[in-house]
């Protein structure tokens, strides 16, 4: 199954002192990597807001040149509406839910989730924003932040 990196994973790759090593850790089978255009916009906004220097921006450009960036604007929006309604416990296709209260998702996360579902990609992330969608719409591999520490220089 091909992989979709969430924005927090892209950030970890760029911040790591061993970017190649962290990518090998996250993708040991060297599967095709995908990034949503939404994550591209988010990470570039983070770079701008945090005044990244030319070295870090260069690493970001190199990374983005090596992955498949997918624009969501040409996709059928039905999967977005299905995931959003499911997250709000209001999708008529589901009789029961494994959670008792709605799971509010940011709109960017909904687009990222929609892309994973539509293309059958496994989402790689460090956060819990997508947990309720795992094995319902797509597969999630959640990475513990502690597992990424070896790829960062200690200060």
Summarize this, please?
The protein is α/β, with parallel strands linked by helices and 155 residues long. Helices cover 45% and strands 11% of the residues.
- Low-confidence segments, given as residue ranges, are none
Enumerate how many helices there are, as a single number: 7
Structural class assignment: alpha/beta
Radius of gyration: 16 Å
Q: Work out the strand percent.
A: 5-15%
- Cα(first) to Cα(last) distance is 36 Å
| Estimated helix fraction | 40-55%
What number is the mean pLDDT?
A: 95
Number of strands: 5
The description of the largest β-sheet is: 5 strands, parallel
Strands of the widest sheet, in order across it, are 3-2-1-4-5
Q: Give the helices and strands as they follow along the chain.
A: EHHEHHEHHEEH
Which descriptor suits the 3D outline? globular
